[in-house]
Write a structure and sequence with these properties.
The N and C termini lie far apart (about 80 Å). This protein has a domain of about 120 residues. By secondary structure, the chain is mainly alpha-helical. It is built from 5 helices and no strands. The radius of gyration is 29 Å and the shape is flat. The longest helix has about 40 residues. Helix 2 packs antiparallel against helix 3 and helix 3 runs antiparallel to helix 4.
Length: about 180
């Protein structure tokens, strides 16, 4: 069998059974491989930052692939239950799969990443490079520095003297027309 025949059959099969879930999972797989690779190839970045960023990008796609699959298949299964007509169910299944994949991208994956990535990175002993450079600052009690000073029309000083700003007119009263 020639290579052209194999390619033709593969393309035909993919065209007949093309689900949105498969397309998005393929894209997520490529992103999961290429983005961390390109991040690690950056010669201008700090090695610790590259390592952290590449691992975070890879983990995001590892979380995304099953989320896309689960949301897409769940939405497709819903279409099969709701629509009894075979012709209508096929179209509805593809459309609902697409909507399930969109819901995964907009809601499910960000939620799962915010829950899972930080604990995983902490277990591996990796902290964001910003966390290492800037240790938490001690809390300082807030002081009321915004006590309005009386308006001096001769100097046109702002009501808030600690802001060190000036205005061309007094900042009181009703202003009409944006002036």
């Amino acid at each position: 069998m020639a290579l052209a025949d194999v390619l033709k059959r593969t393309c035909k099969k993919l065209g007949e059974n093309n689900k949105p879930t498969y397309v998005v999972m393929a894209i997520a797989t490529v992103k999961g491989i290429c983005r961390p690779t390109f991040t690690m190839m950056d010669k201008t970045e700090n090695p610790e930052t590259k390592k952290y960023t590449a691992l975070r990008e890879g983990l995001t796609e590892v979380i995304a692939i099953p989320a896309y699959w689960a949301c897409g298949e769940a939405a497709g299964a819903l279409a099969k239950k709701v629509f009894k007509d075979k012709a209508l169910a096929g179209r509805a299944e593809k459309n609902l799969m697409f909507m399930g994949v969109c819901a995964a991208a907009l809601i499910v994956i960000p939620a799962l990443c915010s829950i899972a990535i930080k604990p995983i990175m902490d277990k591996m002993g990796l902290k964001a490079p910003e966390d290492k450079k800037n240790p938490p600052k001690p809390q300082v009690q807030a002081q009321n520095i915004y006590t309005p000073a009386p308006l001096n029309p001769l100097t046109n000083k702002n009501k808030f003297p600690l802001m060190h700003s000036f205005s061309s007119r007094p900042q009181t009263g009703l202003r009409v027309g944006g002036l």
